[in-house]
Amino acid sequence: MGVKNLWSLLTPVAEKMPLWELHGKAIGIDLSGWVCDSENFNQNTSQKNMYLRNLFFRTSNLLLIGAIPIFVLDGEAPLLKYGAIEKRINGNKAPIKTHVVRKRLNSFQKQCELLLNIMGVTCVYSPGEAEQLCAILNKNGIVNGIVTQDSDCFLYGARVVYRNFNASGNGSVDVYSMESIEKKLKIGRNKMIALSLLCGCDYDEKGVKGIGKDTAIKFLQALDDDVVLDRLRHWRSDTVLNSANMDIKSQTNEIKLELKIRNKAIENESFPSEDIIEEFLKVPNYPKVSAKWILPDINAFINFALTKLCWEREYAIDKFLPLLTRWHLLYDDTFQANILMSEIIKKRINKGIKCYEIKWNNYEITSIEPQTAVQRRYPTEVSIYEDMHTTSSKKIIKKVTIHDSNLFDVTNKLQSINISKKPAKSKKINEVKDNIKGPLDRFVMKEKIKDDSLTLSDFECDPVDLNISDIINGIIN
């Protein structure tokens, strides 16, 4: 969930972006979000292990557009979240335990981790929540942005968030930039933490009773981001506010608004929760992570697809081969992939990118690859193909040129003919003239008249109607 109503607050600054614009970027992905999406959808389909199927296709899409995904898996849930997890698992009547193990999620994550390892994609476990490590990786510049549905990521320090990931068609994501949020909405990270304290979040679902999003934001936007948390901390001891509270009617609207929120908040003796503030601001130890794509294992995938996805061998190869060939073209400097290009079949355009259709020596299946990637791995073969293609084009051009030259000569000869109107000389000619329906017929009749020792000048014919281009087209056809 994250912070209550935060997404609706941020929607005005979101920008929809085509998925291909992630090319060249390292992307941190909160795996649990994709798993939950797939499981919710899986209730209406008979597809086995929908979360694995969707994970494969979404990840393949990212890899083939040139993005490098890094998947972050949930670690141990924070103590603050145990109550919320218990309610989700067992309902409101379940007692809060001192330790909660998310067994089902952990099982899903293990299967996803196995698939991602087969695809050559990096997986890393967060020391806590996955969105926490995603945010840290983004803040530290290890990834360019993160894919998540959890708004908590901003409170953990994320700078660029990709939400509503859609891989259908050309694909798209909604982009939320913290720079844009700070500039247009006047809301920074500390204000978001304050909002979570006032309106509720995963660690305190209730927030302050009677305080909604609009009221809280109106108050927070009037403050500087770097002072807002201390302002909440000192509400009880603030002498100015205590004095103003004695005569509320005479105060400015700003003071009245703050007093309204403060008086409700301090009814809770633990407000503001330092545990929640620390959870969002602390920087835990986390494993070293690098953005890279290693060799995909097609044989392991065939077995995995057969057992986990119920895919036939041919179908599994068809879906996985583009990953292996693309990795080979981009990274296989020592030819570890055990695959070689057999031939370039033809040029193609794929989503606006110049490509080649390639046949590979190990498989009967072809793949569509960017011309730049093929050029990098097979410069000699590409040069030969392009030379042959250019030579073939020159021959066609030469043939057309000669043909055009002949047409030019014919045109000159036809244009030199003097066509004028004269009365018909005989009944025979009048009968022939009546059957003339168009320029080509007239031209044919010219030849017939020659055979009968007649001349074109013997015809009553309008020179405008006798179109030279039509005659030439008639000759060619």
TrEMBL record:
Residues 1-95 form the XPG N-terminal domain. InterPro entries: 5-3_exonuclease_C_sf, HhH2, PIN-like_dom_sf, XPG-I_dom, XPG/Rad2, XPG_DNA_repair_N. Residues 117-187 form the XPG-I domain. Its cofactor is Mg(2+). The keyword rRNA processing does not apply. It comes from the Eukaryota. One of its GO terms (biological process) is DNA repair. SUPFAM superfamilies: 5' to 3' exonuclease, C-terminal subdomain (SSF47807), PIN domain-like (SSF88723). Coiled coil: none annotated. Pfam families: XPG_I, XPG_N. GO terms for molecular function: 5'-flap endonuclease activity; crossover junction DNA endonuclease activity; four-way junction DNA binding; metal ion binding. Keywords: DNA damage, DNA repair, Endonuclease, Hydrolase, Magnesium, Metal-binding, Nuclease, Nucleus. Belongs to the XPG/RAD2 endonuclease family. GEN subfamily. This is Flap endonuclease GEN. It comes from Aphis gossypii (Cotton aphid).
